[in-house]
Amino acid sequence: MPPRPSAQVSLNGGVEYITLVEAAQHVAATSKRSEKTALIAALLRQVAPAEVRAVIGLLVGEPRQGRMGVGWARLRDARVAAAAAPSMTIGELDDALTVLAATGGQGSQADREQQLVHALGRMTADEQAHLARVLGGEMRQGAQLGVVTDAVAKAAGVPAADLRRAAMLLGDLGAAAELALAGQPLGVGLSPLIGVQPMLAGTSASVADALLLTGPASVEWKLDGARVQVHRRGGEVRVYTRSLHEIGARVPEVLQAAMAIPHDEFVLDGEALGLDADGHPLKFQDTMSGGSVLRPFFFDVLHVDGRSLIDEPLQVRKSVLAQAVPSHLRLPTLDTSDAGEAERFAAAAVAAGHEGVMVKSLDSPYQAGRRGAAWRKVKPVHTLDLVVLAAEWGHGRRTGRLSNLHLGARGDEGSFVMVGKTFKGLTDELLRWQTEALLARAIGAPEAGYIQHVRPELVVEIAIDGVQRSVRYPGGVALRFARVRGYRPDKSAAEADTIEMVRSLL
């Protein structure tokens, strides 16, 4: 096991940021979950309860301040010489990020740049690199949310199940961790107007495969919309996204629908879908771009009129939902254990312009924040033959392997246009082969220390759920949920799919 980092305390008081950075480096260096958990637990025992939320956000790459609009371009432009020795505490960094997140309005770009330069100037090279990954959304040190949750439970000496439930009902692991590490009771309940971590679904290749896992199930249309969790208490309505950001002011149609439901207090789970002038469903990105009629469709109820339902089986929740919510605001569903019947229902959903279906065990409670066998999504799979343009050196169990692939479609006159990245679907054996094959085609030294560009020669088959418009990539399109199916040694780069073909999937 890597050595446990000891806390370094600033002269200003408080644990220094370098302590967290070194802990993250040790976490990245081990592939064993138990060691990752022990390292993070040791770090959490060293910080004050008031700093716990900040620490967890920095570990998982999701600062508690939320998105701050600081991308790679701004981080690149703000590069400054690294400090010779660490001096910034975790608390000071958290305060700096709070100020950065609050800076807006005319002339704010220059102000944010100045704030960023000042903060980076107090950091060592390792601290600068860690913060760049946090703000750039590129954390890959292996401290996934499940590992951090286990570490909080270990550090606080509480059952992991109790902590997960508290985090679920508070909608925030940081809030639950603060209670646990301060020795406060975790027996919180579901309260309307406080966002709850949504239940997640695994993936099955077919409806029949899904039914083998779920048993008798509710088969529901899978919309290409935006997940919404709608809370109402009296005249107050809040709408939370999948990531628990409150967006009520941006979705007046959803607020109006909630106020029309004949109950004063409830929590509903559903999707908001954009419809065109003829009532046909729009793609996700068109739904989110605004300008369309936005309509909510609810598929679950977690609370109604003072009664929490999350521990009730789905069959009971569906019955309550049918009584509480008008039919035009509910998703079409079919309760069945018959694969043929379910397949026909799924085909009808796709024919109506939707993504596919969800298959949910009728016996399942609402396991917020969990992804397991109880809920399965089934969607038609598209595949593309793309060219590897670069790969990123891995972390944790993938240390020493080229992992995250940069994928390109064929452009004009032998050029290639990047359309996305993926590290999913790679077995250990494929990682070893891939690393050797890509290093044999390496071009120059790694960019930014970890992105290795390669000659565009290897063709890889990529499964995707679809594509969406993008300003991030030069081709104007990005892959959705890309994963590796396998390499295609039988194909040359000249036979890869074209950018026009990829765009046609829009």
Overview of this structure, please?
This protein has 506 residues and is of the alpha+beta class. It has 17 helices and 18 strands. It has helices spanning 17-29, 33-46, 52-60, 72-77, 90-102, 108-121, 125-135, 145-156, 160-170, 173-181, 207-214, 252-260, 284-288, 314-324, 339-351, 428-439, 499-504; strands at 200-203, 217-222, 226-233, 236-240, 265-275, 293-304, 307-308, 333-336, 356-361, 371-378, 382-393, 402-410, 416-422, 451-453, 459-464, 466-469, 477-480, 483-487. Strands 11, 12, 13, 14, 15 and 18 form a 6-stranded antiparallel sheet that branches. A 5-stranded mixed sheet has the order 1-10-9-2-8, with helices on one face. α3 (52-60) crosses α10 (173-181). The longest helix has 14 residues, at 33-46. The two termini are 48 Å apart. The mean pLDDT is 87.
The number of helical elements comes to 17
Beta-strand percent range:
15-25%
Strand tally, please? Answer: 18
Give the termini distance in whole angstroms: 48 Å
What characteristic shape results from the CA principal axes? globular
Class derived from helix and strand content: alpha+beta
Multimer state: single chain
Radius of gyration, in Å, reads: 24 Å
